[in-house]
Amino acid sequence: MKRFYVFYDGECALCRRCREWLASQPAYIELVFHPFQSDEARRLCPELPRFQPSEQLIVLSDEGGVYAGEAAWLMCLYALREYRGWSEKLSAPALRPLAQRICLLVSHNRLTLSKALFNQLRHIQNETTGNTCVRV
Amino acid sequence: MNPTVWLYLIYLGISILLTVWVAQTLHKNGRIFLVDCFGGNEPMADSVNHLLVVGFYLINFGYVTLALKTDEPPADTQQIIENLSSKIGIVLLVLGGMHFLNLFIFSKMRKRGLEQHMPPPFPPTAYTMPPVPQE
Asked: What is the ipTM for the molecules in this complex?
């Protein structure tokens, strides 16, 4: 695996902050980010709506493997040089349910959290529609 | 020679022998560990091993020389032995600390080396067509 396509919610400020943080980290596997609402996301993964990207983070590997929800988060950690060890720890049977609960909780409340933390909900029309989101 | 000079000579002799012994042990037994850390790259492992030993000698000899001077010159053999024992004790503790620091660094490097080749922790949730990157 050489590249992961990360499909996040372009309308959520928290998700965009997470994307910025992920993109700034040194990585073993290249992370390419696209809002799930973008045309490029639909082009890369025509089946994307089937995986409910509005409900959870989706990661698509260049080999066609799909990771959803906490699995997607753990794969993002797996891609990062400094956090690969954490992906293994959090994937252990004892911790994975906890990771799943936290990811579900954050995903379901991401818009509320974004509003509370950053006080901005929808201000990136370009990123949800155009190709400006291609930068990594 | 007065007792203080004897104290210094014995202290230096024992400290130098101890340092050389620990450094040689680290150098000999750390090599295979480092080769593993660097994914079988032996010249790299040998180079790092040598550099680590040089650093180890510098720090230890630096400490041994700094700690040489005694504040209470010993008057008799009993005081020489007492003084010597406390000095050598500290040198041993410093050597032990350095040894564990070395081990810690080695294991960190090894873990990092292994992580690089770690397979994904779990299989994908589902499969779809592999994406075609934008030209």
From this structure: 0.71
The total of structural domains in chain A comes to 1
The predicted pLDDT at position A96 comes to 92
Domain boundaries, chain B: 3-71+88-115
Q: Which of B122, B132, B135 to mutate to test the interface with A (most CBs of A within 10 A)?
A: B122
Those residues whose C-beta lies under 8 Å from the C-beta of residue A60, and which sit 6 or more positions away, are A4, A5, A7, A44, A45, A66, A67, B128, B131
pLDDT, tens only, B51-108:
989 998 999 999 999 988 888 888 888 888 888 899 889 888 988 888 888 888 878 8
- Determine the Cα–Cα distance for residues A121 and A12; give it in Å rounded to an integer: 6
Distance CA B24, CA B10 (A): 21
Global pTM exceeds 0.90: no
Domain that includes residue A41, residue range: 3-134
Structure tokens at A84: 């690969």
Q: Do A84 and B115 touch (CB under 8 A)?
A: yes
A83 in B contact zone (CB under 8 Å) = no
Give the β-pairing of A3-8 and A30-35: parallel
Q: Please determine, for residue B134, whether its predicted confidence score (pLDDT) is greater than 80.
A: no
Chain B hits for A67, Cβ within 8 Å:
124-125
Q: What is the rounded distance in angstroms from the CA atom of residue A94 to the CA atom of residue A65? A: 24
